[in-house]
Amino acid sequence: MSLYVYLEPDREILAERGPEFQSVGGAIVHSMAELETHLPRYPETLLVLIGASVPLDEALMFTAYQRLQRPLIGVVLVRKQINPAEVIRCLQAGVRDVVEEADWDSVRQATSRSVDISKALSTSIRSGAEVAPFGRIVTVFAGKGGCGRSFVAVNLAVALWAGGARRVLIVDLDLQFGDVAIMLKLPPDRSIAGGIAMAGRLDEPGLRSIVTPYRPGVDALLAPGNPAQGEHVRRELVLEILDVARPHYDFIVIDTPAIVTDQVLAALDVSDWFIPIVTPDLPTLKTVRLTVEMFDMLEYPRDRSLLVFNRANTQVGLTTADVEEAIGMPFASLVPSSRDVPISVNQGEPLLLTEPLHPVSRAIRQLADRCAGTETAPEPKRGLFGRRKKVTR
Ligand SMILES: Nc1ncnc2c1ncn2[C@@H]1O[C@H](COP(=O)(O)OP(=O)(O)OP(=O)(O)O)[C@@H](O)[C@H]1O
Ligand SMILES: [Mg+2]
């Protein structure tokens, strides 16, 4: 069992630093490719120490990806020299600490601090699951088609999954024209239609038999392959499915059709978070305004709504403030318009997985943080960079 791994392609540096690392049970890899194969084989790994000879961009790309894939792992970067601009870039990418190679004492301290943080995080994730055994239901909707509901729902589900830190179910309640299967490139063999015959007596194995696994920890309950079957999915069945699913997931994200159907109302009734999506055009704005008013009438709490402005940067003469004023609610997340979105949709690969640092991915992660209540999670403390005075200016 090895909690640490040290990537250093430079043989000379390795000859100097490697033995000490190995003496505390650390593993050594010589290339990024070797590191990529090492991590899945040693899932207990809590720390990756990236050596000074690895190019910074490569190290940061790895870190950003890792943060999603295995958020518990801390990355500590060794550099020949450090400067403030680089430290900021590293922090933004999610590196836990950057230390100078000449100061190997600091490397030791940084690695042990990072392992302590990972251990504390893993305990809090586990105990968090014990405290809140019931999954929170997040429903994404809009009063008009084509606003990006399915794109946001799918990527939000992946963001909430956080590389395996949480269990997530995505439910496609667009029973006639559901797109979740396409967006995740999943076979349409199993669907919510399989639940129709189990209505009234659905149990966990029954639910398992109709969901499609996507990644370890993410399942999808797809829309029926045959749109006609959608009519037989009653409101009661939707509630039953959510009831059976709740104890087994941390989050259930629901994608919806453009019209508020009976099934959608059922889901909204039991939702913890409402995610209305609005795009910068007047017809959409009008429908969202109406939806918000309908919500007020139904007495859904406003502080549970996280309004998303999708394609926020599109120039159509409406400012963010105009839109907020028109709806009477502030935005929780501004998702920019990008050509990479339709590309990711066509490829069936969530942008959040393929490009975790993309501005669109960042905006959706911010939304996920709001849902998970982690948006105020403390940034790595200054103390972590305790030796900041050594930063060269
Ligand atoms: N931020 C964005 N930037 C660029 N294109 C986007 C963005 N968001 C969504 N789109 C594109 O808009 C189209 C509609 O997106 P999506 O299918 O997610 O919307 P929807 O509201 O679920 O639509 P439908 O009514 O068909 O269910 C897709 O082609 C998608 O690629
Ligand atoms: Mg859709």
TrEMBL record:
Provide ranges: composition bias, Basic residues.
384-393
Query: What's one Pfam family the UniProt record gives for this protein?
Result: CbiA
Q: Which Gene3D superfamilies match?
A: P-loop containing nucleotide triphosphate hydrolases
Write out the ranges of the annotated region (Disordered). Answer: 371-393
* Ranges where the CobQ/CobB/MinD/ParA nucleotide binding domain occurs: 138-351
Q: Which domain of life is it from?
A: Bacteria
PANTHER family listed in its UniProt record: SEPTUM SITE-DETERMINING PROTEIN MIND HOMOLOG, CHLOROPLASTIC-RELATED, SLR0110 PROTEIN
Q: What is this protein called?
A: P-loop NTPase
